[in-house]
Q: What sequence folds into this?
């Protein structure tokens, strides 16, 4: 691993380059590759908030294990401090250490920019590889990448953002140091818009830590941003809100018991964004089926064994009507079942849930 203090390219003044714009390459999985989306005009007077990439949030109340791969004491301290900005407002905890099965694994390769897997997508990365790289740590970069790590997308990808890019100018600016991006990379990282149905934010927050800083000449309609180096008020509200990690709900800290073969449990999504977490205790190896029933379009995820951050299955509509059903061979252990409405922006309603052993 290169030493980031000596291995950074220098400009003509001999000073290390500072990124002209904080740009990170987000390694999204194919299922999350976003469709290009024409820009909608921003809604005046609307409530602004950050954007969550649908389906990548961890269980509310989770403790995420974090392991550093290299890095100096000072780099590690910065990463830890800025992770704490999210921890201060969200119902999430970070545990730093050398756990080989850490959920978030951070390298500090100065030649690989700054990027992070988004939320639970980190589970798809082999345990010996990083899920986040902090190639530079200029103001707020670690906080921005930890925003991705807990499931936030880019604020400039908000389809309500109202940014009209001056594409040739942006492509030329990012072709040089420190990014050296080709046109396709710029199109993916900057111009691509998350489609409305894949994110859970609506309005545009110009102060979000999840926004790249860019100058007005990058846009055709004069939209510019300054470098946001701290969490905005709306970042804090959003991440602590019902759709992300609210402290008003215990989440995984107090799961509802879901017994195998017992009578179905009646539950409801009372407020938009709310999630219910159930604890399923499996005593014997076998194939188990968990499903919901009722008129509500809910989405289900299964985590375990023994870990509320290890996603092993998820389903939307394999059951009756719009209900999810998961059938899975399980070893003995504790499993966590998360149920939330498919439409986290406005969906509410009642459902029942049951679990049984099939073989
Ligand atoms: Zn980013």
A:
């Amino acid at each position: 691993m290169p030493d980031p203090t000596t291995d950074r390219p220098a400009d003509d003044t001999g000073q290390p380059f500072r990124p002209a714009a904080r740009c990170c390459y987000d390694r999204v999985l194919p299922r999350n590759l976003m469709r290009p989306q024409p820009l909608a005009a921003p809604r005046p007077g609307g409530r602004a908030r950050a954007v969550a990439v649908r389906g990548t949030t961890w269980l509310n109340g989770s403790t995420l294990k974090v392991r550093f791969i290299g890095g100096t004491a000072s780099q590690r301290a910065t990463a830890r401090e800025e992770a704490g900005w999210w921890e201060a407002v969200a119902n999430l905890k970070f545990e730093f250490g050398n756990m080989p099965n850490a959920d978030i694994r951070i390298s500090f390769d100065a030649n690989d920019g700054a990027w992070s897997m988004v939320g639970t997508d980190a589970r798809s990365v082999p345990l010996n590889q990083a899920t986040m790289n902090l190639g530079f740590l200029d103001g707020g970069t670690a906080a921005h990448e930890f925003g991705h790590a807990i499931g936030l997308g880019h604020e400039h990808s908000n389809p309500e953002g109202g940014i009209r890019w001056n594409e040739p100018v942006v492509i030329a600016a990012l072709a040089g140091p420190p990014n050296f991006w080709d046109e396709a990379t710029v199109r993916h990282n900057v111009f691509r818009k998350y489609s409305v149905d894949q994110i859970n934010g609506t309005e545009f927050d110009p102060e979000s830590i999840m926004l790249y800083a860019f100058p007005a000449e990058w846009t055709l309609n004069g939209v510019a941003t300054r470098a946001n180096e701290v969490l905005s008020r709306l970042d804090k509200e959003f991440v602590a809100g019902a759709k992300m990690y609210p402290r008003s709900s215990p989440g995984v800290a107090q799961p509802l018991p879901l017994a195998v073969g017992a009578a179905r449990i009646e539950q409801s999504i009372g407020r938009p964004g709310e999630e219910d977490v159930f604890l399923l205790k499996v005593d014997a190896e076998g194939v188990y089926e968990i499903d919901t029933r009722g008129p509500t379009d809910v989405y289900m995820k299964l985590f375990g064994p023994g870990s509320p951050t290890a996603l092993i299955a998820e389903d939307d509509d394999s059951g009756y009507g719009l209900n999810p059903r998961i059938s899975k061979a399980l070893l003995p252990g504790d499993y966590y079942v998360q149920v939330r409405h498919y439409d986290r922006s406005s969906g509410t309603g009642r459902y029942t849930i049951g679990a049984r052993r099939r073989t």
Observations:
- The domain at 30-239 is CATH 3.40.390.10 (Collagenase (Catalytic Domain)).
- Helices lie at 73-87, 141-149, 167-175, 183-191, 233-239.
- The chain has two domains: 30-239, 251-357.
